Amino acid sequence: MDIKQAALPTAAAHTAGESAPMARRRILAAGVSGAALSMLPWLSDRAGAQARTAPPTSGSETVTTPAPTTTAAAPKRPTTADIELLAVAQSIELAIRDLYDATLAANSFEGATAEAITAIREAHEAYAQSISGLIGSDAPGIRSDKLYNAQRSNFSGSAAAVAQSAADLENVAVATHIDILGSLIGVDATGLIASILVVEARHATVLNTIAGASTLSNQLASDGVALSPADYPVK
Fold first, then answer.
1. CB burial class (10 A; 0-12, 13-18, 19+) of residue 80?
2. Would you kindly state where each structural domain of the chain is located, as residue ranges?
């Protein structure tokens, strides 16, 4: 698979009547399906299961069996707290999209590499749209200016330098979404964020390759420092 193919994304939701080239509308479906499978055991635990108790033993000894405890199944729809976290996630996705817009406008990349960067850019826009589809009118629909302004200077310069900065930012996005995932309650919200973060890890691998990484260990996504939702409030 070449770099362009690896970067082509698939969104969790498409806007009807899109006229963009087919090659730029595809999503990284493999990452989405992989996330769904890997999350099943975790979702099962969050949904709750009836506690098991040991059967009584035979003999004269009296055995007291604790009463079974149950927990309510996790809700399907996002909770109020989920919506606040999803709003932050959307503002981050839109900031990253706009950073890619800036570097594309500056012609930092050419040819097939520019098409790969465009595909990654459109993936972030699609993720923001997917969050809007999930939480509706509660979606802010605005980028995080704090993140955009902090990263803007890193998205200008040589193709290799910008690609490395973009890879680092994708790793930050992955780490942030992992943290958000740990706080989400609703099953729909959990599944969406899981699907997004897996594909963004693939973005990092593509970008590391564009930046010149020649060994597998350097090409793979690495640990990023998560952004705290409290530090990036949606205004």
1. exposed
2. 77-235
> Residue 8 half-sphere exposure, CB side, CA atoms within 13 Å?
12
Residues 154-177, mean pLDDT to the nearest whole number: 96
36 phi/psi in degrees, rounded to 5: -60, -45
Buried b (16+ CB within 10 A) or exposed e, 173-211: bbbbbbebbeebbbbbbbbbbbbbbbbbbbbbbbbbbbb
- Residue given tokens 């035979």 in the structure block: 58
Is the CB of residue 118 less than 8 Å from the CB of residue 104?
A: yes
Q: Would you identify the CATH topology of the domain 77-235?
A: Ferritin (1.20.1260)
pLDDT at position 17 over 70: no
Two tokens at 211?
């930046």
Q: Any residues with CB less than 8 A from the CB of 80 and at least 6 apart, and which?
A: none
Q: What is the pLDDT of residue 83?
A: 97
User: Alpha-carbon distance 149 to 225, whole Å?
Assistant: 18
